[in-house]
Structure prediction request, 663 residues.
Amino acid sequence: MYGRLLLRGNRVLAGVALWSVVATGVHAADPQPYVTNLINTGEGDLDTAVKASSDLLALQSTQAVGPFALAGRVHDEYERLRTALESCGYYDGTVHIVLSRPKAAQANPTPAQPSNSDAFTGDDAAVLNSPTIDGKSQDLANWIANVPKGEKVEARVSVVKGPLFHLGVITLKDDKTGKPPKLTPEQMKALGLATGQPAVAQAVLSGGGQLLDALRESGHALARVEKPVAYLRPETRTLDIVYPVTPGPVLNVGTISLDGLQKVHPAFIRRRLTVQEGQLYQPSKIEAARQDLTDLGVFSSVSVKDGSTTAVDGTMPLDFSFREGKRHAVGAEAGYSTDLGARVGVNWTHFNLLGNAERLRLVALVTGLGGSAQQGVGYDVYADLSKPDFLERNQNLSARIEGLRQLFWSYRQTALLVRGGVARPLARNWNGNFGLAAEQESIEQFGVTRDYTILSVPLSATFDNTGVGNPIEPATHGMRLSLGMTPSLSVGTKGEGTSFFTIMNASASTYFDLTHLGISRPGRSILAFRGTIGSIQGAGTWSIPPDQRMYAGGSATVRGYRWQGVGPQYGNTRYAIGGTSIDAASVEYRQRILRSFGMAVFVDAGQVGENSMPFEGTVRVGTGAGVRYYTPIGPVRLDVGVPVNRAPRGDTWDLYIGLGEAF
Prediction:
């Protein structure tokens, strides 16, 4: 029964040719309002397909038409819904459409007219005035035209599924040879079809696409898999499928051309490319190379396509096309917490500084506006330079020069810092960083000013398998781990002498989606956990510059306590001493509400000790709640924390506003 759809289409066209009607409804509405009632079949996929295919339903409120156009829409509906039935494997199903006048039926109940369209003629007044009519009736247009103005028509649509058809013989045929193509078991498996499974159209069509992808991934760059030909076998209720397949030769990547580069150096792009001439043609690796170039941040778009329609000396050339993005960007920064106050500022970024995707970023911030942990207004001004592929691929260089002034209750600091580092991947989900830093600072405490010169070697490693590329985007699963060790040398004045110490710290966070317990939709309800531990080895508290000591309090450790509000204090004052060990933990429940809002409740606890071994000191506990507003770039966070066992002269509550989750 090959070509069934085409033949049925011809029959529909023949039926349209018989719509010869006379407008007798002088009071007819034009356009004629109507409502569609789709009767569910009880099968979700089929009901979805019928609803998506129904023009009567889709157009009833947006494209009202006159009686004759509406009659045409009804007649076309049969073909559309038969296609929906067949797409779900029901090739012997039927479609029923009955139009009715509910208002007329209520006013003057009469028996329903027979659904056989042969029972109606254009001159039959009883038909024209009847409250129902079959959608296939040749008098349908006149029937609609005789509906009085102001009366709405109901179209009741139902389908009878009939038996479910299954796949029969599945054949692959090479269009060039007429014989089955020589395919590997992996390529055959990619088809994803087997005799006996339901003959669902989407699976049949997807199978061809999956086979084509598998062929191309095996180097068959010119492979073709045409639309399958289906043979209906009503006697066995099966559908035989024939796929026309032309594998073509196995090709390698040929000449790679780069088009559209203006300020970016082509030599840099060629070194950066992860796909090279001569390697096996594989679309997945070609796409990975395209995405890698996009991630450089200097292009607004990167595209790649085959450079030829035929093989070129056993290869397939590739054409990469680039559109460079704007080279400069200006932005603003803002944040607020009741302990550190407001920080506001501007930034300016120069992309592709030297033609190799370097980035220069200048930032100027005003800090300490109104914070409970601050004695006055400070500043933070710095310049960041980053260079990708430093010395070798995937090894990035970063450098910063920074001027800083902070007026905390514990100390007042004015400093100039210079630091640089190299970051590179270490293993799957692991990255490492090695750096050098120098700092010249002046620290004032209790009216005494001391100068320090600090040289350090920051070493760190991070692990992240949350799958979240943007650090502002909330994680819903996985784990983040950060390990750091910073050997430091401090040379002080006014009897402070020289000290050598090593700062060691580790922090970890993990996320659990409550959908795994069956009580929430994915990504809507999250439990987040955080732990922090740190120690300073090699020197006591008083031998370490105040800014290098360990402090706790605030959104990074214990909310509800101001920054430096957890740990040893000078008597009962607001001045923190700092310590040589820290440990803290947090648990937070995050709940999405509607589309753009969310809430969170949390409990934090932590302590700072004067001994280099953690888990000593006075444990401080804070708790609170917050709201979230989710934007395209990440959530805007507002948290309020209160202390459970408030420290002397500590804050009674703290407010934190920022972009992104606390951890």
